[in-house]
């Protein structure tokens, strides 16, 4: 093979181009902090980075859904604990109202308290978060309970909307919603608002038979309330474990992504200094190898 000046010049320039290319790549890693920015840099690593990015976005969505569900469940827990206490008080008033020795003033005091209790129960039933009524089921954009012009208590949510909310996390469905029919209506279809209203009228008139009938409804809805509290407590624990698992997944995926995508800055700085020295040596060598031209003397 004949070594000519043109061959030496061509190879020298190619070598300088290679050094400049490596120098540019290292400088890009130094400024961006990423060792792989484009698929052309490393196709397999770029694919893994893309998959990890998608996974992290998915985990963030799951975490947001779980946090939303936890906010609702905490509201359900608070509301149900208050409702359970109220149901116990209603039972105490019913037992007291069945006493034949009560005076008219005593009966009036009990009925007034029951009327206030009904007002409080309506307030709880219409609990809302960001404009959504938590006991509304599929109709959570409207009030759950209203009082009509005749003073009757009306549940505005139709039975068809008695659908519990749920979220899907990693293929697992978690049901967390409670509706007005779960908390304020017995399995036989009697609403607590009607029960309290009828109980108030029975105590006022001294109708012990009606009082006994409503006591049965009160005990039924009390038991249902306790079951709801147990379910909400279990859901809280499931959501907490799910949240912890999502946090672990997020930490692991973030570390994995960092290992794949982030450049080792100390190593990049060392390699950059090395390439700079190589570039200077290559330029110096090229100055000695490439013959001067007429332009160099002008």
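Sequence proposed for the structure above (298 residues):
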């Amino acid at each position: 093979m004949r070594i000519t000046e043109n061959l030496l010049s061509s190879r020298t320039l190619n070598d300088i181009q290679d050094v400049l290319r490596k120098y540019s790549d290292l400088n890009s890693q130094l400024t961006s902090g990423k060792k792989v920015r484009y698929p052309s840099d490393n196709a397999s690593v770029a694919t893994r980075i893309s998959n990890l990015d998608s996974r992290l976005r998915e985990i963030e969505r799951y975490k947001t859904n779980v946090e939303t569900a936890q906010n609702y469940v905490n509201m359900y827990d608070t509301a149900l604990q208050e409702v359970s206490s109220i149901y116990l008080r209603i039972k105490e008033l019913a037992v007291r109202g069945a006493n034949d020795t009560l005076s008219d003033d005593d009966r009036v005091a009990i009925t007034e308290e029951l009327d206030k209790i009904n007002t409080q129960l309506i307030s709880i039933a219409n609990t809302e978060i960001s404009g959504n009524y938590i006991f509304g089921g599929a109709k959570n954009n409207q009030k759950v309970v209203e009082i009509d012009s005749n003073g009757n208590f009306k549940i505005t949510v139709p039975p068809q909307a008695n659908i519990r909310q749920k979220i899907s996390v990693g293929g697992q469905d978690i049901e967390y919603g409670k509706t007005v029919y779960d908390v304020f209506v017995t399995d036989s279809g009697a609403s607590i608002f009607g029960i309290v209203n009828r109980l108030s009228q029975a105590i006022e008139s001294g109708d012990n038979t009606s009082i006994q009938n409503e006591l049965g409804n009160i005990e039924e809805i009390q038991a249902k309330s306790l079951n709801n509290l147990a379910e909400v407590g279990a859901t809280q624990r499931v959501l907490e474990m799910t949240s912890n698992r999502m946090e672990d997944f997020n930490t692991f995926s973030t570390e994995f992504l960092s290992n794949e995508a982030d450049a080792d800055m100390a190593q990049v700085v060392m390699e950059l200094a090395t390439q700079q020295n190589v570039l200077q040596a290559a330029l110096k060598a090229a100055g000695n190898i490439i013959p001067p031209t007429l332009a160099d003397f002008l």
